[in-house]
Amino acid sequence: MTTPVQKAKAHKRQIVKARKRRVIGIAGCSGSGKTTLAGELARTLGGIHFHLDSYYLDLGHLPFDERTRQNFDDPALIESPLLARDVASLARGETIERPVYDFATYTRVTDRTERVEPAPFLIVEGLFALYYPELLPLYQLRVYIETPDDLCFERRLKRDIEQRGRTPESVKKQYEATVRPSSLAFVRPSAAHANLVVDGTGALDWKVERVVTELRKRGLLTGLA
Description:
two-stranded antiparallel ribbon; Rossmann fold; five-stranded parallel beta sheet; 225 residues; 7 helices; alpha/beta
């Protein structure tokens, strides 16, 4: 028999699920500053920074040498249907189990997922956040960060040398072979889907203010618990 306390808790859960979640998509080329902006927005708004990298396809069926030769700047390597389903679930206030990807082996970790709880704001960020048609209807705001190629490369070079132990020569080779061609083919054209284009050369606090101001104009900062 259900007690009054249990009924009250169940009713509260229903109310929490019914609350409107705001989903923001942020895209830009590698080195554009999208990850930094998404992280700061998540902190400012009390939301979730939701990166697309967890949804790369499991390449365990390929020999390791062949895995390393895949172009991870191609949107075909992301499992976009699963990504869209998980984003839609979070937007409805449902908890998901997100895949865990091992970039050392280019495979998903077997029998392990990451639980993600819904929050008032979901910041979906990645190269292809504005590329997949199935994602676009889920966003209340679509943001593209416009950053010149030379600055994107400078930032990526610094990051890959300092954080990933890469040599300048290897970074430049990869950038010219796959990163920039893919950005021209897939990422930059996705800017046409943006509601707001932000200058990637500006200060972080200015970029955050641009997005928050746009949210306010659209009435997306009201009606949240």
